[in-house]
Recover the amino acids of this structure.
């Protein structure tokens, strides 16, 4: 079956690309080994983070490096051999986190984040799923006065770039979230982001919109991708069909470069794995907002399936054995303060965030492979940036002018 474009990968980024290509008149087939929204897009904290105008830098302080060496931190852990293989990209990540370089990267990154709410809200309206918005804003909770003042300074800096927030004292935190146990120094409430009750449900709703508009979704194996004698692209589906198109977008998250390497393109992905678990709500102690424990690096988010605890980063290859010790450590701390009931899921969920050494996503034409495009490397913000990535990539692929300068995100900057 022939189409204009094949999109490989049905997470938030892939579905965003498929929808925007379709909106520009393309016949599009969306292919993944699983149904839409069941890989990394399923497992996040469910926030569309308009406030996240700066990407996650690598902390450069000696204290972080010393404590990280013990591999017992709650926010960051690693598999030693895997981390050793990442030393080159991690060193680049460290250099790009230096203040001057990081400032320039953040300016480029902000051009994408600034469009995140707008592009999501458009699709939510068209898909008729505004009921998936569980609330607006979230709390960045601080246990110590030192951390609180640091977060207040960050909030003031971002306010100058149009990001809205309110500052809360410890007493105000207790007033707004009476189910919390213990005392806290205070918090910043970011008021722009949207909290989604089920991230995978939102991806699936966007995929249904794509189908309602004439798009087709197939189960299939992206590794069957191949070129044709006529210079096009083919991929096989699980039901025995062969799909063909003149262009293909590879949006396979942490698996993207495993496929593009066959066509001569690699990039230094840093895989940051994360875990989550759902807990039963305690009816007499409701939690009203998504909350980040800033000092410990985990998130508690009220969701459809219960209270979801998501962990920070684990540096390990995507196919390395699961080691959910980080989740256990975060749960032990969280139970002292949050209204967590019994575990709901039979086992912890795990996914992998594809992060780049310069903290910016990668989207555009793959060098040296005519008709091959990619969209990956969004790190912690693939859920937030999927629709805007799709919009910008679709403009590039159809010869239109993107709304922002896309050169900082070009695949050609690697390799």
């Amino acid at each position: 079956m022939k189409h204009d474009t094949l999109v490989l990968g049905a997470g938030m980024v892939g579905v965003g690309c498929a929808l925007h290509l379709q909106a520009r008149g393309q016949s599009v087939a969306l292919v993944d080994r699983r149904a839409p929204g069941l890989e990394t897009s399923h497992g996040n904290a469910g926030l569309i983070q308009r406030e996240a105008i700066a990407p996650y830098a690598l902390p450069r302080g000696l204290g972080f490096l010393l404590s990280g060496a013990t591999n017992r931190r709650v926010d960051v852990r690693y598999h030693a051999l895997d981390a050793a293989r990442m030393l080159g990209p991690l060193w680049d990540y460290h250099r790009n986190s230096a203040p001057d370089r990081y400032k320039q990267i953040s300016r480029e990154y902000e051009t994408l984040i600034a469009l995140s709410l707008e592009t999501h809200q458009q699709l939510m309206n068209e898909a008729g799923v505004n009921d998936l918005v569980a609330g607006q804003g979230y709390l960045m909770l601080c246990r110590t006065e030192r951390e609180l003042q640091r977060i207040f300074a960050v909030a003031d800096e971002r306010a100058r770039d149009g990001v809205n927030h309110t500052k809360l004292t410890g007493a105000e935190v207790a007033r707004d979230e009476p189910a919390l146990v213990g005392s806290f120094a205070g918090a910043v409430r970011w008021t722009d982001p949207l909290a989604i009750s089920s991230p995978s449900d939102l991806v699936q709703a966007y995929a249904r919109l794509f189908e309602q508009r004439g798009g087709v979704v197939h189960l299939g194996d992206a590794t069957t991708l191949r070129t044709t004698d006529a210079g096009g692209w083919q991929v096989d589906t699980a039901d025995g069909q062969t799909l063909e198109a003149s262009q293909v977008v590879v949006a396979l998250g942490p698996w993207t470069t495993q496929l593009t390497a066959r066509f001569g393109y690699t990039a230094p992905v840093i895989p940051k794995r994360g875990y989550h678990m759902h807990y039963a709500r305690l009816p007499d102690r409701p939690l009203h907002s998504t909350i980040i424990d800033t000092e410990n690096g985990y998130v508690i988010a009220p969701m459809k399936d219960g209270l979801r605890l998501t962990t920070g980063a684990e540096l390990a290859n995507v196919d390395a054995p699961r080691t959910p010790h980080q989740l256990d450590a975060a749960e032990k701390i969280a139970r002292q303060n949050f209204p967590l009931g019994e575990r709901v899921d039979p086992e912890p969920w795990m996914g992998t965030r594809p992060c780049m050494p310069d903290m910016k996503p990668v989207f555009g034409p793959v060098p040296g492979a005519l008709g091959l495009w990619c969209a990956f490397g969004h790190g912690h913000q693939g859920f937030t940036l999927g629709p805007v990535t799709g919009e910008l990539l679709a403009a590039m692929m159809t010869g239109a002018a993107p709304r922002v300068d896309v050169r900082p995100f070009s695949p050609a900057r690697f390799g």
